[in-house]
Design goal:
Layout lengths: L10 H6 L4 H5 L2 H12 L3 H33 L10 H20 L4 H19 L17 H22 L5 H23 L8 H21 L8 H23 L6 H16 L4
Helix pairs in contact: 3-4, 4-5, 5-6, 7-8, 7-9, 8-10, 9-10, 9-11, 10-11
């Protein structure tokens, strides 16, 4: 059984959130130059410098997308290489903008401007790197493809994110804490599946039925939290369903590595029936 740590898709944000910030900051003197040209009635200089600033901002924004995709790629043990090479595109845009700025604004010669552009591309590549080009297969086994596994985990993460969004609207501390425990267990299970892809086939019903059930229960409770009396029947129904979900999340993690999962499938069907009965599915 793999040693599971809490799955957290936001881990890469701390590292990549500020990455590339200087790409947005460094071009501001060009914006200042455009403003000075504007007040100096230099129409051509204003257009050139404003266009250059816009080019640098576009390149920085494209790079930011590439950094975010790179973070997701390196975060996972199994990942597809980015289909669109945003970092490489950003490097070309940055190099082109730098060359044109050197040529038209600073009035360097064409060849010197081209050389500056080439050095800009090389500098970007050396400092930030270019886009990952190889898929990461991890421990993929027969019967499960990397794309299939990633899609399943991403779909599950969408459901978990929806649960988190709804949880933030809930003021009942006990219910909110229970939902957070459910979220934690779900991500631990997702990490187990990522580390051992062979678990995917045995977890498909869990990922769909239980995460959908938890999502609907949480969203339903959050939408009605102001109208639910503390001891009302609806309040008790919500808590009963949450108890069922939490119990089965715990069982799923424990049973995942066992050969016999008949009991777990029965438990999933019980919850499915309960959700329908409570009009929560």
């Amino acid at each position: 059984m793999p040693k599971a740590k809490r799955y957290n898709p936001t881990l890469h944000k701390a590292k990549y959130k500020l990455k590339g910030l200087m790409l947005f900051v460094v071009p501001f003197p060009i914006l200042l130059a455009a403003i000075i040209d504007l007040f100096g009635n230099d129409f051509f200089g204003t257009i050139i410098n404003a266009a250059a600033f816009a080019g640098f901002m576009i390149a920085a924004s494209v790079a930011k997308i590439g950094f975010r995709n790179e973070g997701k790629y390196y975060q996972r043990s199994i990942a597809l290489a980015p289909k669109t090479p945003y970092k490489t595109i950003a490097a070309f845009l940055l190099a082109l903008t730098t060359s044109l700025t050197a040529w038209w604004s600073i009035h360097y010669s064409l060849w010197i401007s081209l050389l500056i552009g080439i050095m800009t591309f090389i500098g970007f590549a050396l400092y930030y790197g270019l886009d990952p080009r190889k898929d990461k297969a991890g421990n993929i086994t027969l019967g499960v493809s990397a794309e299939e596994l990633i899609n399943a985990l991403e779909e599950a993460e969408v459901r978990i994110s929806a649960i988190e969004t709804a949880r933030r609207k809930i003021t009942d501390i006990d219910v909110e804490s229970q939902i957070q425990r459910i979220i934690n267990k779900a991500r631990e299970i997702m990490l187990m599946i990522e580390e051992e892809p062979k678990y995917l086939n045995r977890s498909r019903k869990f990922l769909k039925v239980y995460l959908n059930g938890a999502k609907k229960v949480t969203e339903g409770y959050a939408a009605n939290t102001q109208n639910i009396a503390e001891e009302s029947e609806l309040e008790n129904d919500f808590r009963d369903v949450l108890d069922s979900i939490e119990t089965t999340f715990i069982r799923q993690k424990a049973e995942l590595t066992k050969n016999d999962h008949f009991d777990l499938d029965v438990q999933i069907e019980v919850l499915n029936t309960q959700l329908k009965y409570e009009n929560l599915k």
